[in-house]
Design a protein that fits this description.
By secondary structure, the protein is of the alpha+beta class. Helices cover about 35% and strands about 20% of the residues.
Length: about 475
């Protein structure tokens, strides 16, 4: 026999709220849907009510998960998930980040050597068969694409350095490949008394109990073959974030992103189920009298009694017909057909009248779209992408070809070297470890950018050819 649960029921404006007496769970019946609530639930790990682990600026205490102490990444250790959710809910953010990755990576990944000639730093791109053989043994392109994306979103990434087997039997050690470890699956171990981070803890931080966590030593480029498997974290240094994680490029624009994402939902919800009164429907009393007479004849014919319940049901059927047609934007273009009856005293037909109430929809929608336009500019500005490259301008006009060309040249001169150095750091350090003495490095190759007027007619973009004279 089930135990009866004490419950409290409240009705507010035709909305029914039912909960238990301790106010820990319940449901709300709003007539257009039922919503359940768990008033005591939270998302993530329980927080320490005595010692605060994290505030909006700094990590204050280590987070303990199982046998490991980690540096939490964001509030409740869910910063990567927070960023992922923001990207899922915003139409602009993923596109801008993808464009930044594409612009940075250029046409391909190649080996090059740096030389100085007459005071100028020049990159000489070349193919090295020995180095090419090493990278052909593993999916190096997928690795670089993954860490470039991780870096562009969170300004940091993790690389795993597995060694070949048999080193204990006398085989020469070397790094077999590089693997990307997603930011959401890796955390820095809490630093020691000397403020050094000695390990990286990996696993599923949404469900750490499922497969557990695993500890890996930090890879050291000065002793690259010390551990069979090691991991290193590389990032763009953030001010006053010594032993912590870098902030996302759009960290300071999060409020603008949330606002921009909410506007589309707001307008969709407004269209689907506006809370405002849209129509005023006038129904003459004689109309219902006529319909009651028709209902009475139908009841007499069927041998049933006409009750107030039957009358209400008849009125409801007419009302529902109007609501179904008038309440949704999906019915735009449809029409409502109603019956009219002759009024002897008025000497005219009478029926339902529908009056559309002025809701000033245009003012409301225009205001939201203006906010959205400003937030889009705020997002691209926060991501440090020139409006000419993002195709988002204050005036709404597409930038000219010369504006795009100038912006792209400026981007190549000022925004690629540092990011490329950080992203390719593990790759080039592994290259030096496996091939001591090599002067070759791996980088992102970009075709030289010149105007169409300077380009040979056979090599112009409309003919589908890359620009010549690259360096």
């Amino acid at each position: 026999m089930s135990e009866e649960i004490d419950k409290v029921e409240t009705v507010v404006n035709d909305t029914r709220i039912v909960r238990n007496k301790d106010y820990t769970y319940g449901f709300v019946d709003s007539k257009i849907g039922v919503y359940t609530f768990d008033y005591c639930s939270n998302y993530g790990y329980p927080t320490n009510n005595i010692v605060q682990i994290y505030n909006n600026n700094r990590t204050l205490q280590p987070m303990i998960i199982g046998d490991y102490k980690i540096i939490p990444n964001g509030q409740e250790n869910f910063y990567p998930e927070e960023l992922r959710l923001m990207m899922d809910e915003n139409n602009l953010l993923p596109a801008v980040l993808d464009k930044k990755v594409t612009l940075l990576m250029g046409q391909s990944q190649e080996f090059y050597e740096v030389r100085f000639e007459e005071g100028k730093r020049i990159k000489y791109w070349d193919v090295d068969p020995v180095l090419e053989k090493w990278i052909d043994d593993w999916d190096h392109k997928q690795y670089v694409e993954a860490i470039a994306t991780e870096f562009m979103v969170e300004r940091g990434y993790y690389s795993k350095f597995p060694l070949n087997k048999g080193t204990r039997l006398g085989y020469k050690p070397y790094i077999t490949e590089l693997k990307s470890v997603a930011n959401r699956k890796a955390r820095l171990e809490w630093y020691d008394d000397n403020d050094n981070v000695n390990a990286i803890i990996t696993g599923n931080y949404l469900q750490p109990w499922e497969k557990g966590l695993k500890r890996f030593p930090i890879w050291d480029r000065k002793d690259p073959f010390k551990s069979p498997v090691a991991i290193r974290y590389n990032n763009l240094y953030g001010f006053a974030l010594d032993n912590e994680y870098s902030r996302s490029a759009f960290h300071g624009s999060r409020s603008s992103i949330r606002l921009a994402s909410s506007i589309a939902v707001l307008l969709m919800t407004f269209n689907d189920n506006s809370a405002a009164i849209k129509y005023h429907v006038k129904v003459p009393a004689i109309f219902w009298d006529e319909k009651k007479d028709e209902l009475q004849k139908e009841c007499n014919k069927n041998g049933v009694e006409m009750t107030p319940k039957l009358v209400d049901k008849m009125k409801d059927s007419y009302s529902i017909k109007f609501v179904d047609v008038l309440s949704s934007y999906k019915n735009v273009g449809k029409f409502v057909q109603t019956d009219e009856v002759w009024h002897d005293d008025a000497k005219q037909f009478v029926g339902w009248k529908i009056e559309v109430l002025d809701q000033k929809i245009k003012d409301f929608v225009d205001a939201q779209l203006n906010i959205l336009s400003k937030m889009d500019l705020e997002i691209t500005s926060g991501l440090d992408l020139d409006p000419a490259l993002s195709n988002i301008t204050r005036e709404g006009n597409l930038p000219s070809g010369s504006e795009k060309l100038y912006a792209f040249k400026l981007y190549l001169l000022t925004s690629t070297d540092l990011h490329e150095d950080i992203i390719m750091r593990d790759f080039n350090d592994a290259l030096k470890a496996n091939f001591p003495g090599t002067k070759k490095r791996r980088g992102f190759y970009h075709d030289a950018v010149i105007t169409e007027a300077q380009t040979n007619p056979n090599d112009r973009i409309k003919n589908g050819s890359s620009a010549p004279n690259n360096n």
